[in-house]
Amino acid sequence: MTEVIDGNAVAEDVRESLRGAIETLTDAGHQPGLATVLMSEDRASATYVSMKQRDCEELGIQSFHVEVDVDAPANELYDTVSDLNANDEVDGILVQHPVADHVDYEEVVRRIDPGKDVDGFHPENVGRLVRGDPRFRPCTPHGVQKLLEHTGVETEGADAVVVGRSNIVGTPLANLLARKADDGNATVTLCHSRTEDLAAKTKQADIVVAAAGVPELVDGSMLSEGVTVVDVGYNRVDGEAVGDVEYESAKEVASAITPVPGGVGPMTRAMLLYNTVKAASQRSGIDVDLP
Ligand SMILES: NC(=O)C1=CN([C@@H]2O[C@H](COP(=O)(O)OP(=O)(O)OC[C@H]3O[C@@H](n4cnc5c(N)ncnc54)[C@H](OP(=O)(O)O)[C@@H]3O)[C@@H](O)[C@H]2O)C=CC1
Ligand SMILES: Nc1nc(=O)c2c([nH]1)NC[C@@H]1CN(c3ccc(C(=O)N[C@@H](CCC(=O)O)C(=O)O)cc3)C=[N+]21
């Protein structure tokens, strides 16, 4: 039987396990705070951001939200980031990607205080991760790791194929899976749009993670019996959420698979809360137990 990995349930576990730490920090006078920044007219982005705010509210994390007009000059977004960097109540800053076309997202990320960079996108934090001393693991890759751990999928010695090499998902995930660590030690192949024969790569994998943004790119014929399939893709097709994996055919061969929705998405949000609590602990110097 194929196990359908329940991302909502694992995310709920993560949230519950953060409650104690949030209480400790709050009682000590440092309630964790997360700021979200939106500079986009995209409806989906607005929805994600409001879900993140709701998550905070539910757990007793203070949330701040700033909207920057899409037509505003880049400086307005930079100033917003500076203000949030200086705001002592703000432990974490997330600037929702993408931002307006005329703004360089990389420059925005460089301006975020690395100690508040709960996305884990700042070059200093990327460097630390690659050097084997992560401060904030990027939320989606971290969520994927948690799902694998929860499902009892051993990464050590496994052949893992990551499809997609973005800075947000594929590249950091490949790094984490390849790290010399209990939740790493995989042999990782990082595939992208110039990969010659994607099916040949995915066929030899024990773990396939699809993060290409191409609806149903990976199907059952490209997989081997017993593979674990993690679908990061979140694409709107005729108003429906569709992953990067053709779920029905992949499920036929997989031993475990994540659905869309209800797989990686909720984990991304849960790990954002985790990073926010971690930031609050680091900034306040108050030690807490983190899952
Ligand atoms: N559930 C969640 O929490 C999240 C979901 N997502 C979703 O994950 C998906 C990926 O997002 P993101 O990483 O930001 O996407 P990007 O568009 O930034 O990157 C896509 C990557 O996939 C590669 N790619 C594109 N087409 C193919 C192909 N035909 N074969 C192999 N590789 C290909 C690209 O290659 P190249 O580098 O050569 O261009 C690129 O490396 C999207 O559907 C997004 O919505 C993203 C973040 C969080
Ligand atoms: N700076 C930045 N950080 C991000 O982490 C970031 C970003 N920008 N830009 C966009 C992507 C996308 N992303 C998702 C988060 C949650 C769900 C999610 O919760 N999905 C639910 C359902 C959502 C729904 O109901 O529509 C699910 O899959 O079950 C999806 C996608 C974070 N991203």
Number of helices: 10
| C-alpha Rg (nearest Å) | 19 Å
- Following the backbone from N to C, one meets helices and strands in this order, namely EHEHEHEHHHEHEHEEEEHEH
User: Within the largest sheet, what's the order of strands?
Assistant: 1-11-8-7-5-6
CATH class term of the largest domain: Alpha Beta
CATH fold node name of the largest domain:
Rossmann fold
The count of DSSP E runs of length 2 or more, i.e. the number of strands, is: 11
Strand residues, percent: 15-25%
- End-to-end separation in angstroms reads 29 Å
CATH-assigned homologous superfamily of the largest domain: NAD(P)-binding Rossmann-like Domain
Q: Helicity, in percent?
A: 40-55%
Low confidence ranges: none
* Structural domain tally: 2
Mean of all residue-level pLDDT scores:
97
Global morphology: globular
Tell me the major beta sheet: 6 strands, parallel
User: Which structural category do the helix and sheet elements fall into?
Assistant: alpha/beta
The assigned CATH architecture of the largest domain is: 3-Layer(aba) Sandwich
Bound molecules: NADPH dihydro-nicotinamide-adenine-dinucleotide phosphate, 5,10-Methenyltetrahydrofolate
Structural key phrases:
291 residues; alpha/beta; Rossmann fold; 2 domains; six-stranded parallel beta sheet; 11 strands; globular; binds NADPH dihydro-nicotinamide-adenine-dinucleotide phosphate; binds 5,10-Methenyltetrahydrofolate; THF_DH/CycHdrlase_NAD-bd_dom
Describe this structure in words.
The protein has helices at about 5-25, 45-60, 75-85, 105-110, 125-130, 140-150, 170-180, 200-205, 245-255, 265-285, and strands at about 5, 35-40, 60-65, 90-95, 160-165, 185-190, 205-210, 230, 235, 240, 255. Helix 2 links the parallel strand 2 and strand 3. The protein is of the alpha/beta class. It folds into two domains: about 30-115, Leucine Dehydrogenase, chain A, domain 1 (Rossmann fold, 3-Layer(aba) Sandwich); about 140-265, NAD(P)-binding Rossmann-like Domain (Rossmann fold), CATH 3.40.50. It is built from ten helices and eleven strands. The protein is globular and about 50 Å long. The chain binds NADPH dihydro-nicotinamide-adenine-dinucleotide phosphate and 5,10-Methenyltetrahydrofolate (GUE). NADPH dihydro-nicotinamide-adenine-dinucleotide phosphate (NDP) binds near residues 140 and 213.
